[in-house]
Design a protein that fits this description.
The protein is mostly helical. Helix content is about 80%, strand content about 0%. It has helices at about 10-40, 45-70, 75-85. Helix 1 packs antiparallel against helix 2 and helix 1 (about 10-40) packs antiparallel against helix 3. The protein is elongated and about 65 Å long.
Length: about 90
């Protein structure tokens, strides 16, 4: 069965650039959030405070890692486009 796919590489590059902007903003916002949470040190103490900071840090780091992994979107899309062109 013959299948053909048209890929607009310019559109992929534009989408990749937009995703990079979104990822950078998300990473910045997540970093700011964790910094603000850490400023609670001294005014929020005890087991609840430790649990909050620990779970919040873990969640924020998980989210940041996801956005960092998506920062390679451009390379991924270019590779997909190149493979499709060669098929």
């Amino acid at each position: 069965m013959d299948t053909s796919v048209y890929i607009d590489t310019a559109a992929l590059e534009a989408w990749s650039a937009r995703m990079a902007t979104i990822n950078e903003a998300a990473i910045s916002d997540l970093s700011n959030f964790i910094n603000k949470a850490n400023e609670l040190d001294g005014s929020f103490e005890g087991t609840s405070a430790s649990a909050f900071l620990s779970s919040t840090s873990g969640f924020i780091n998980l989210a940041k890692n996801g956005h960092l992994k998506m920062s390679n979107v451009k390379n991924f899309l270019i590779e997909v486009a190149n493979v499709m062109e060669n098929e």
